[in-house]
Amino acid sequence: MATVRFTLHGDLSDFTRPATGLAAGPSPVTVTARFEGRASLKDVLESVGVPHPEVDLVLCGSRPLTLESPTPADARVDVFPVGAGPSGHARLVPTSQETPRFLLDGHLGRLASLLRMLGFDTRWERDADDAALAEASAREDRILLTRDLGLLKRSAVRRGAFVRGVKHLEQGREVVRRFQLRSVARPFTRCIRCNTPLRDISAAEAAPRVPPRVRERHRRFLACDGCDALYWPGTHHDAMKGVVASLCGAPPEAGGPGDR
Prior knowledge:
Elements: E1 2-8, E2 29-35, H1 41-47, E3 57-60, E4 63-65, E5 75-80, E6 102-104, H2 109-117, E7 122-124, H3 130-139, E8 143-146, H4 149-152, E9 160-162, H5 168-178, E10 198-201, H6 203-206, H7 212-217, E11 221-224, E12 230-231, H8 237-248
Parallel strand pairs: 1-5, 6-7, 6-8, 8-9
Antiparallel strand pairs: 1-2, 3-4, 3-5, 10-11, 11-12
């Protein structure tokens, strides 16, 4: 039986604590793992709780390791999260997508609505099983967001993140910050209900589908060809703009749906 000592930097140390103790502090944590034979670094790291999509750099001394590398026996290994650690080394997390696309597990439905509100292609199915989610995230090159560490550790997952927040607005701000979404958000361009991109339609085209008072007050309408929803900047629009501002830290562009 061999051992390795991992020093977990940044928020990777969260994964050594119970779920209720996540985000307890930025100080590095050192943990010892035991393994047999030529166990991969991925498997041994995950045995102490760290899911591989959260790992961006691994150094044994000054020598970088990959997740497929055999775990060095009786060694000290530094493990860094996304963007942390010494520069000049190739990173393990795939290069960022120009416009991120997401896949969320069944427990994150309210977060899915927020990401769609910001204009991001976000797949969510209430009852999808873990194997299907992991395979879909790889096949469609989507970032898998989950609070299920077992799901995040599946080998098929290339892009993914553990969502630490519990409340949906907290989760939304966390994801915007983690994936630098503020500059690429396009609020109110995607259906919150079904994820289909919205299209502008004329007031005349919308008229048969809206109440008389709406026809009198509004000239801009957005239609969803996926679920046939119709949106206009009604009474809820100011509240929705406030949500977008809360997520992105700046007021959104004017004009967008509020009612349907």
